[in-house]
């Protein structure tokens, strides 16, 4: 049986909402490490956690998560490299606006 790999854009959604991993983890009721593992694609969260992540990032489940390799993945539009650029740009915007705090993780 083929392993299902879940792709996600959680980090981008979290940064867009100006949340740290710690803040999001407290809202969802998991550890900061769990958020980091989900963002890195090393942990597939339960449906309950996915729903809470969607609620607290203001995104739909289909915007945050998808099954890697499915044809609908193309509908998500961007590659991981594009997401990394977007995350860096969000960070740069926050720095220019003075909203970023020292020692804050992305």
Describe the structure.
This protein is mostly helical. The C terminus is likely disordered. It has a two-stranded antiparallel sheet. It has one domain: 434 Repressor (Amino-terminal Domain) (Orthogonal Bundle). Helix content is 53%, strand content 6%.
Give descriptors for this structure:
mainly alpha; 434 Repressor (Amino-terminal Domain); 6% strand
What's the gist of this structure?
The chain contains 6 helices and 2 strands; from the N terminus they run βαααααβα. The relative contact order is 0.19.
Distance between the termini: 35 Å
Number of domains: 1
Number of DSSP E strands: 2
Tertiary shape: globular
Query: In percent terms, what proportion of residues is strand?
Result: 5-15%
Please outline the major beta sheet: 2 strands, antiparallel
Please render the helix and strand layout as text.
Elements: E1 6-8, H1 10-16, H2 21-28, H3 32-39, H4 47-57, H5 61-64, E2 65-67, H6 80-97
Antiparallel strand pairs: 1-2
